[in-house]
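FORM 7B: Structural annotation worksheet

SECTION A. Query
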Amino acid sequence: MLPVAVDAMGGDDAPHAIVEGAVRAHKAGLPVVLVGDAARLEPLLGASGPDVVHASDVVGMAEGAVAGVRRKPDASVRRALQLVRDGAAGAAVSCGHTGATLVGAVLDLGVLPGAERPAICSVLPRSDGGRLVLLDAGANVDCKPELLASFALIGSAHAEAMGVLAPRIGLLSNGEEDGKGNAQVRATLPLLRELPLRVVGPVEPSAAMAGACDVLVCDGFVGNILLKAAEGAVHTVVTLLREEIERRPSGRLGAWLLRGAFERFRRRVAWDAQGGALLLGTRGLVVVGHGRATPDAVHSAIRLAHRGMRAGLLDGVARRLASRA
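SECTION B. Predicted structure
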């Protein structure tokens, strides 16, 4: 299998956290190549660490995405994407500037036919035990109905790659009736129903999280807020639960007895469980990692990229988009 090209210079704790996570993936048998300043990366690697591809520049978090990417052709994120374009890597992972990753993916990989723009796909746990594919999670804040229709096709392919047969497609709204929602939602719904998909119609956030659909379509502005609200709710629940547990000795004893259940809960809801989100719609697999990525999160992001490669996700997305023609 082709390696995953990892932007080693992107992230709040780069390159140390990125290198450590990549080394863990390498030792676990996942092919990896690190991209970045070789003089800084090689001292952090052991004798049998992953290979390094040198890149002399970095797109900083404070830089404009378009200007930064265009001014820096030797930036680490661009070199990682170009390895995918040239067939030297099967996917790219970056925990750096999300906008730069998006712009670089469009410039260096190109967009698949039928996808005007790529979308960020996040996977959330549902209360019924299933998983919800949410897109767009932040790549496109202003979307025309036609763009949201392409997201439904991309999300369907993602859910199918996860093993979901005939995924149910929901359109995020403030009610389940066709007349609910803003002008964007009302204009998008008939376009979705023209597609060769199993569209369930408008879906409220609470219903989606309970299992009303497998794919939830929305624009990147709403999707990103929904995702951050969910992360904030999880943090609040965990904090309040810890306070209640520590309030009395009996609570601490109960927590000790339930420590296995608490750890399983944490793994299901923690932001680093997936390590990142797939950017789909370009001619290559890309994982957008968290800026505050830990070594565990980096390892998870590399695993996510390899799962997408093994599942043939890129071909699945291309086929779904082609069905719109």
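SECTION C. Observations
The chain is about 45% helix and 15% strand. The chain has a mean pLDDT of 89.

SECTION D. Sign-off
Analyst initials: ____
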